[in-house]
DNA sequence: AAACCGGGGAT
DNA sequence: ATCCCAGGTTT
C-alpha cells in the first residue's frame, strides 16, 4: 500500500529511505497504533490547560505516570493556575510534592509559575525560547508543552522516543548514553511538517515507547513496527553501550540522606533543632553535607530563635 | 561529557 | 540486587 507524498502527515525534511519503508510509513504506522491504544490520561483531557500540561511534564521528569497521575489531580485542584502556585507558600508546595522525587523540581515549578506570572501575564508561552527560559524547563519539556498544550510542531525527544528510533531505525537495543546533535537532527527529520501531524507523532511515538517498545521487556509481538524494525530484523542484538552505563547507587548516598531529612521536615509542623535530625540520619559528616546542600538549594531554611539557642531548621515558608 | 539530584515498583 | 522512569542544571 502506498501513501501519497502529499499526505498531511508528510515528514518535514527529506524522506528517509530505509530497507523496510519510508519515514512516512513509520510515522503513519505509529500514529495509527496510537489512535487505538492511547491511554486516557488527565493531562490529555479536552479541558486541560497549558499550565496543567506543563505541571504534568515537570512531574513526569523522572517519575513514572502511575505515581504522577493522582498527584497531578490533587495538585491542579489546589493550584489550578500559575498565579495560584506562584502565591503558594513553599512549604505547602514541598509537602504536596511529597515523595515524587527530586524536590528541586517542585521548587523550580514554583519559580516557573512566578516567571509565567511576571513575564507572561500568567499565561504559559508557546514560544520555544520563552519556554526554555523558564526554570525547570529544558529542551524536552519546552518541546512537549509546545506540542501537547498548543498543538505546535516540535521535536519531542524523550527517553521513549530515543529508544523507539534507536531500535526501529538504527537497529540498536538502546540509544546512546548521551543524546547527540546528530540524534536530534535525525529525530527532527522524522517529524511531520504540519503542526497537527507533528503533535500526533510526538504523542504516539512516546506512547509506543512507554507501552510497547519498553526498555526492559519490549512487546514486539504487538508492535506496529515489528515488520519494519531494524532491531528486530537484526535479531534483537544486545546493548552495545552496556559497559558504559553506570547506574547511580542509592543506599547510603547523599541523595538518600537528603530525602530522609526532607521527609522529616515535611512531617514536622514546627522548626526543629539539629539533634532532631538524628531521627532521619545519624549525625555524621555526610548528614552535615546533605543539610548544607539542602540549605544551598533553598529546600531548607535555618533560623536563629535567639543568640543563645541553637539554630532551627524547617521547610521554607 | 559527566555528576548530581528521590523514590518506588518491576524484574 | 539491579534497572527503569515524559530530564534539568551545574561543573
Secondary-structure map with pairings?
Elements: H1 23-37, H2 50-59, H3 65-78, H4 82-86, H5 90-97, H6 103-120, H7 128-132, H8 139-150, H9 159-170, H10 181-190, H11 195-211, H12 230-233, H13 254-267, E1 272-273, H14 285-297, E2 301-303, E3 312-314
Antiparallel strand pairs: 1-3, 2-3
Helix pairs in contact: 1-11, 2-3, 2-8, 5-6, 9-11, 13-14
The chain binds a DNA duplex (11 and 11 nucleotides) through α2, α3, α6, α8 and α9.
Keywords: 4Fe-4S, DNA damage, DNA repair, Glycosidase, Hydrolase, Iron, Iron-sulfur, Metal-binding
Catalytic activity: Hydrolyzes free adenine bases from 7,8-dihydro-8-oxoguanine:adenine mismatched double-stranded DNA, leaving an apurinic site
Family: Belongs to the Nth/MutY family.
Share of helical residues: 40-55%
Give the spatial strand order of the biggest sheet. Answer: 1-3-2
The number of E-state strands comes to: 3
Largest sheet: 3 strands, antiparallel
Q: Give the name of the CATH superfamily of one domain.
A: Winged helix-like DNA-binding domain superfamily/Winged helix DNA-binding domain
Taking pLDDT < 50 over at least 5 consecutive residues as the criterion, the unreliable ranges are 1-17
| Overall 3D form | globular
Give the SSE string.
HHHHHHHHHHHHHEHEE
Kindly provide the name of the CATH class of one domain: Mainly Alpha
Kindly identify the CATH topology of one domain: Arc Repressor Mutant, subunit A
Overview features:
single chain; about 325 residues; mainly alpha; 3 strands; about 50% helix; DNA-binding; hydrolase; metal ion binding; purine-specific mismatch base pair DNA N-glycosylase activity; DNA_glycosylase
